[in-house]
């Protein structure tokens, strides 16, 4: 295997920031779905198997609703702190990765096919440790900005403007006023666990595939991409819990009853979302179904009132 050439860090960051900007309205709608905000009532429908169900609006209908309420620029709430967070995370990851060195690590200039099996195994272990530490540090240093971005988006639920500016530090002050120092790291632990689990699943599976299954170099990138998708899907509940905890009890309507219970810890949040079958909300963006408590009236499923939907106009 030919070692890949290092691409310029800043060109990678610029490209990713462009992609984040273009996709931000969809990610914004996804965040609102993850924290449990459903402004459009579900409509009765049937599944592919003919079972009665309640269909929720897909992500594009959700984005259109946001645009109708807030206008085009409103679809970009939280974008600036989100881009700043990504930049900080990428730089921290790169600098940390380059600074971590192991005394007996095989040289990166040596092809994998030229390494003995024990050296190849050692190389995979060291790369995993380096990536894990770098990823964790990147997340930790950028998490306060992610919290601000999430709270800016969550303000849509109640129409607040508490978290509005980042350049003049007002948003940082608001986080401290509401939750103290720990507010900057609300939702951090489940996020770290989820990212570590993804990295571990991808790294171990890639090593196993490389060693036992696929020898064709051209097929390996596709296999790794598939593994990453599966790992991200498996660990998705950690992302939902992290986003909920980032806004829980932060002074915004979105993080307070009746919109959201006040959780004692992220495990409490996980337990509640699991009990109400909400750990996967936002995972499917095109075909979404209401999975909360419901009753059947005249053959039609109706959501139980305690899980109220916000009956605003969708036109």
From TrEMBL:
Protein name from the UniProt record: Mitochondrial carrier homolog 2 isoform X1
Similarity comment text for this entry: Belongs to the mitochondrial carrier (TC 2.A.29) family.
Key words, A-Z: Membrane, Mitochondrion, Mitochondrion outer membrane, Repeat, Transmembrane, Transmembrane helix, Transport
Segments annotated as Solcar repeats: 122-212
Signal peptide stretch: none
Gene3D superfamilies noted in UniProt: Mitochondrial carrier domain (1.50.40.10)
InterPro entries linked to this entry: MCP_dom_sf, MCP_transmembrane
Compartments (UniProt record): Mitochondrion outer membrane
Pfam families documented for this protein: Mito_carr (PF00153)
GO cellular component: mitochondrial outer membrane
Organism: Apis mellifera (Honeybee)
Gene behind the chain: 726264
Membrane topology, from the record: Multi-pass membrane protein
